[in-house]
Amino acid sequence: MRSLLLVMAFAFVLIHSSIALKEDECEVCVKTVKRFADTLNDDIKKDHKKIEAEFKSFCKKQKNKEHRFCYYLGGLEESATGILNELSKPLSWSMPADKICEKLKKKDAQICDLRYEKQIDLNNVDLKKLKVRDLKKILNDWDESCEGCIEKTDFIKRIEELKPKYAHNEL
């Protein structure tokens, strides 16, 4: 009997440790939930229905990975499913973002599949060595376009024009 309890306790610890999020796992979820939670005032934090309404409003302004995260949770009008209560209720209980994301992962594993791309250090990169796809991504991240750009050199020229506006030198 005693050995059975010991085996069950070991299995519980093993299962629990495999469920916990790793350091870089679920980075989009954790960052987005933290950023969203920071926008809420105390009155809204107490009511999970108000949190859901605020999240839908928050999602309208999101782009890229955060937009996809909102889609998975049901924070967008075009979302196919909705598990917003899995976010709003724990937030109303002041649960930390990483624990909320653990719960969300159990409901929909693709939430934690979202990853941020590596950021390009514009101060140290040779733009000529980047692919056109990467050059377009830089412009897209800046919400800028390159009208009439056909050649790679056109994209590089546009980025060089905009670089002082977006890429600040760190001292």
TrEMBL record:
<dbReference type="GO" id="GO:0005783">
    <property type="term" value="C:endoplasmic reticulum"/>
</dbReference>
<dbReference type="Pfam" id="PF20145">
    <property type="entry name" value="ARMET_N"/>
</dbReference>
<keyword id="KW-0964">Secreted</keyword>
<dbReference type="InterPro" id="IPR018247">
    <property type="entry name" value="EF_Hand_1_Ca_BS"/>
</dbReference>
<feature type="domain" description="ARMET C-terminal">
    <location>
        <begin position="124"/>
        <end position="166"/>
    </location>
</feature>
<comment type="function">
    <text>Required during the maturation of the embryonic nervous system for maintenance of neuronal and cuticular connectivity. Essential for maintenance of dopaminergic neurons and dopamine levels.</text>
</comment>
<dbReference type="GO" id="GO:0071542">
    <property type="term" value="P:dopaminergic neuron differentiation"/>
</dbReference>
<dbReference type="InterPro" id="IPR036361">
    <property type="entry name" value="SAP_dom_sf"/>
</dbReference>
<dbReference type="GO" id="GO:0005615">
    <property type="term" value="C:extracellular space"/>
</dbReference>
<dbReference type="InterPro" id="IPR045333">
    <property type="entry name" value="ARMET-like"/>
</dbReference>
<dbReference type="InterPro" id="IPR019345">
    <property type="entry name" value="ARMET_C"/>
</dbReference>
<keyword id="KW-0217">Developmental protein</keyword>
<keyword id="KW-1015">Disulfide bond</keyword>
<dbReference type="Pfam" id="PF10208">
    <property type="entry name" value="ARMET_C"/>
</dbReference>
<keyword id="KW-0732">Signal</keyword>
<feature type="domain" description="ARMET N-terminal">
    <location>
        <begin position="25"/>
        <end position="120"/>
    </location>
</feature>
<protein>
    <recommendedName>
        <fullName>Mesencephalic astrocyte-derived neurotrophic factor homolog</fullName>
    </recommendedName>
</protein>
<feature type="signal peptide">
    <location>
        <begin position="1"/>
        <end position="20"/>
    </location>
</feature>
<comment type="similarity">
    <text>Belongs to the ARMET family.</text>
</comment>
<dbReference type="InterPro" id="IPR045332">
    <property type="entry name" value="ARMET_N"/>
</dbReference>
<dbReference type="GO" id="GO:0031175">
    <property type="term" value="P:neuron projection development"/>
</dbReference>
